[in-house]
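Limitations

Structures in this collection are predictions, not experimental determinations, and the ligand pose is part of the prediction. Treat each record accordingly. The example that follows, with 2-acetamido-2-deoxy-beta-D-glucopyranose as the small molecule, is included so readers can see exactly what is and is not provided: the inputs are given verbatim, and the output is the predicted complex.
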Amino acid sequence: MLSWMFFFRLLQIPKFVSALTYNISTCYYIITEEFHHEGDVVVGAFFPLHTFYTEKKMPHKTVPYQYLDNRIQYNFKNYKYILALQFAIEEINRNPNLLPNTSLGFDFYNVRFTEKYTLDNAFIWLTALVNRKYFPNYNCKKRNFTAALTGTSWITSAQIGTLLQLFKFPQITFGPYDPLLSDHGQYPSLYQMAPKDTSLSLAIVSLIAHFRWSWVGLILPDDHKGNKIVSDFREEMERKGICLAFVKMIPATWTSHFAKFWEHMDETNVTIVYGDVDSLEGVIRNIEQRLLTQNVWIMNIEHHVIDRADYFMLDTFHGSLIFKHSYRENFEFTKFIKTVNPKKYPEDIYLPKLWHLFFKCSFADINCNVLDNCQTNASLDVFPRHIFDVAMNEESSSIYNGVYAVAHSLHEMRLQELQMQPYENGKGIVFFPWQLNRFLKDTEVKDKRCLDWKQTIDTEYDILNLWNLPKGLGLKVKIGSFSANAPQGQQLSLSEQMIQWPEIFSEIPQSVCSESCEPGFRKVTLEGKAICCYKCTPCGDNEISNETDVYQCVKCPEGHFANTERNNCFQKSVIFLAYEDPLGMALASIALCLSSLTVFVIGIFVKHRDTPIVKANNRALSYILLLTLTFCFLCSLNFIGQPNTATCILQQTTFAVTFTMALATVLAKAITVVLAFKVSFPGKIVRWLMLSRGPNYIIPICTLIQLLICGIWMATSPPFIDEDAHTEYGQIIILCNKGSAVAFHSVLGYLCFLALGSYTMAFLSRNLPDTFNESKYLSFSMLVFFCVWVTFLPVYHSTKGKIMVAMEVFSILASSTALLAFIFGPKCYIILLRPENNSFTHIRKKTYSRRKNFPKI
Ligand SMILES: *[C@@H]1O[C@H](CO)[C@@H](O)[C@H](O)[C@H]1NC(C)=O
Ligand SMILES: *[C@@H]1O[C@H](CO)[C@@H](O)[C@H](O)[C@H]1NC(C)=O
Ligand SMILES: *[C@@H]1O[C@H](CO)[C@@H](O)[C@H](O)[C@H]1NC(C)=O
Ligand SMILES: *[C@@H]1O[C@H](CO)[C@@H](O)[C@H](O)[C@H]1NC(C)=O
Ligand SMILES: *[C@@H]1O[C@H](CO)[C@@H](O)[C@H](O)[C@H]1NC(C)=O
Ligand SMILES: *[C@@H]1O[C@H](CO)[C@@H](O)[C@H](O)[C@H]1NC(C)=O
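Predicted complex:
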């Protein structure tokens, strides 16, 4: 429904356009510079409502100006100023409690933007002269002047002010607040109705911060206000980390040919346009013509949506955000506007033109006063909003308030007069305008206490969104507000889903110099650039950033590691050779199997203890060796599972001791064989050894030496639990530190020394003629043992963590297996599979045949 209405209104636009361009009666161009609305006391109103294109051909001093062709231009939007004035005056005149028995009227004078004509009109008004002839210091018509209402630009007010201040004539300005005009030395009787823009920069910057825009442009006039606000903006923006990509100050002499102005305009997606309509009109028109549609414009002025329609559908300012002071809606004013027509106010010089233009009336008489053939429903409120907006705006509101201020002051003055001269009652007011100043000053003070006719609140802003697509729609929709007095964080309220952004943006626009740095990165500011321009570099090793846009990454705490995205620290997992680990499980089961196998071999030996093969090779030593080997296999289990200090110490000592015992037993066996057959040894020693059962001492002695080494090791620098957090990424390796590498290598060296010793002994006796001579097997097992541990060392030192431990376990198992397999394998084979070879008769036969071939030594 709504959209149909818009469409309907759009269809009407071309009619207005053609009306503007063709066949317009000459009455339309006949205009005077002033008109008067009678009253006992009058307010002077100086508004800019029409102007002329060229001044050369403009007739001088003749009223009315006639036949000026198209050179006259009406600014019908400002007609609302007259309406606001009219409305306020009627309201006051109707009010029996305010200025009873005195009617208020006004004298309207047009303001053109040249000092000469502005002052001309002001002067004419003051002297109230006839036929535009000046009589300075005379009030020819004896009109009861009260005050002058001037605006909209501060220049107009200042120009008129220089004249009025000579007489201390009260002047009320309704244009935007201007600090220059508040100089009471220069303008002692000038009162500004517009609220100060104290928090506008804060409001705009809050909005910008809300949308996380950090790279914005700023366009503003190069005047005292522009210079003030630019420093305000800089301050607020610095606080919020927003940067200005460019600041374009528009000099008074600005022209669109100023090519440098248009540079860098496309660097941002958001541009603030701050100023007043008068100083920015040229720029805004140019921006509009250039169709700079890739920008969200944030403005403090309600720029006039299309004065001239054209055939582009796109409007540069579609999607703009406009900040304006917040007003309570005045429905009475809207009602009043409906009642306005040329008949009601015959003195008004603009209404007939409006009616002629928009309602197709024709002028019926030569005086251009009577209208004919108008549409019956003609009234100002049927106009599309972009042509005429019936709602009160900031200026009309100021005018309304200004008139009330005057009325209240007059009322006060009258009351005071009556108190002093009670008999004068009923005679009407007689006063000089300057007498009003005292009361106006008071009302100015009272304003702050918010009189009911004063609706402005300085710190409240409405945020409007301009919907102008298709062009001509011209809706200004309130999408939020800013209230500086609200608590921090609640100042800005927005209905974001209502906002229509410029067509080019499919979502909420972005305006940043550099994309924000994701977690895992940090900002690095670029030298010589604004702080909003930076690059993102990844966090360093083991450092993270878990938020966007950080300047500094943080180190992960001890025992934690940074993930590859560098946005989170994780607890490192602990690794060691566990039983659950396939490798650990395999090694442990192998160790258990082998030790069971050894126990099994013990069983076989015990069962066949009386067979020659068992008896032949020192049964006791075999038992000891087998038992020791069982422990050798079992001691490898110490290495598997989570290490603690006890297992660390146990690992090394049990390993050292069991292996020493095993090797010592082998040595003892080898020596026994050598002793039994080698007679080349010095007889005495041999005999002593035989008698003293020397070989039996070898085991305890060798073991004691190893125990001594271990003792020294444990006493000086025992193995301890160590954590290696750096070798493997994201993991902590728990391992036993050997404590002393020298000790560890001494233990290994001692073992290898024993192995070599055994090997030598066994090698010496390898060819001795005995059926069950195991020397060959002993030497072979020692060789394998030696090889295993010699290869172990380099491999051990080149691996880390679990594998390193597994390597050690593997070496233990391999060397023990070598002993078991080479020394006991052949025997078990004979015992179990060749029992016929394991009988005394066979042995005797064999021994005999062999001995025949060998010389007796
Ligand atoms: C202009 O208006 C007059 C009547 O006011 C009419 O007769 C004439 O045809 C119009 N001219 C154009 C060009 O529309
Ligand atoms: C006003 O009345 C005319 C006919 O007199 C009609 O064509 C037009 O649509 C009406 N306008 C509005 C806004 O009602
Ligand atoms: C207004 O005028 C009437 C008569 O003209 C008079 O009776 C009345 O007192 C006056 N009121 C005031 C407030 O001056
Ligand atoms: C000025 O005010 C007096 C008293 O109110 C009144 O009699 C007189 O008519 C007024 N003058 C004009 C020009 O309205
Ligand atoms: C402006 O918006 C466009 C499209 O959304 C985007 O690609 C570009 O990066 C934005 N420019 C800036 C300065 O943010
Ligand atoms: C970032 O990390 C800090 C400490 O590591 C933590 O306190 C904070 O909650 C984290 N922030 C986010 C958004 O995860």
